[in-house]
């Protein structure tokens, strides 16, 4: 009797074990199907991205029919391999300067996002977009649209910013491409979340609006940018938006004007990002538009018109939540580039005498007064 009971119990245990094993096998098979589908979907997405990029003309394209996008692959490859033997003397010089820049801004333990931000900040602070002059200064070919010229002259058109940023990102092992239309160019970068982001340093520098065009989605980039969206991977990353990474939480939208006035009192350009402790309503979004416009009016009425103000909404990783970015640009003081009155008077007298004129009919002679309008593409 005892043996029969033991056999019965063992039979029940075995049956239970088999049932459990069958259940686990079903779960495992089901999970494997989900994993396999995810992998297949990712591979299909990557294949489509690669196909788009292979059919997209990047290097060799001339923006504004003047500024050619030139490859820097040899330079970035030499940096990663340590072998400079195949580089031209000019490329070796470019690599030397680029290595020095990275050495000064890249620290051990940085994430790819932090490396990108460090390079962006260096370029924003150290590369100028140039100023209009009447007389063309002699410069080396490609000085403002190739990384070699940009890193030496510290001046760039949009192609110069885009190719230099791409070179730095490729040197750091990140995938980066140049987006362009007929008159402008900027960068498209893939970060470690597998997402793509638009970055346009030229527009931020020329508009004195730091981080306004840094790590944008397609939706954000379409404001002020035009490109063939079907030709490039979709940029829908949010995690590494500067606004998401660097925002200050405030109570409500009506706290913004007071905070902006405090920034203006410091008499410096500023870029700030505000999140809110509640979801914004449609009314809040409309209020923000009016607040920004009225702050602009108030600035003009109180002698702060040397500043510009603009704002943008940024998506977060939570649907329905937004971050408000406010950008205070400061107009350049043109008087810094002016000659002193005595020298201007002397010039006027000499020119007037040569042309038989009264000196009073001549203006200041500064660019913009009488010089031919520069129709060169500003890319």
Protein architecture, described:
The protein has 379 residues and is α+β, with helices and mostly antiparallel strands. The protein has four domains: 1-55; 59-238, Roll (C8orf32 fold); 247-332, 2-Layer Sandwich (Translation Initiation Factor IF3), CATH 3.30.110; 340-379. It has twelve helices and nine strands. The protein has helices at residues 2-54, 73-81, 89-105, 112-126, 147-153, 158-171, 201-207, 218-221, 242-245, 256-265, 282-301, 341-355; strands at 62-63, 67-68, 176-180, 185-190, 196-199, 248-250, 270-276, 307-315, 322-330. The strands form three sheets. The protein has a four-stranded mixed sheet, covered by helices on one side. A three-stranded antiparallel sheet has the order 3-4-5, with helices on one face. The protein starts with a helix and ends in a 24-residue tail after the last helix.
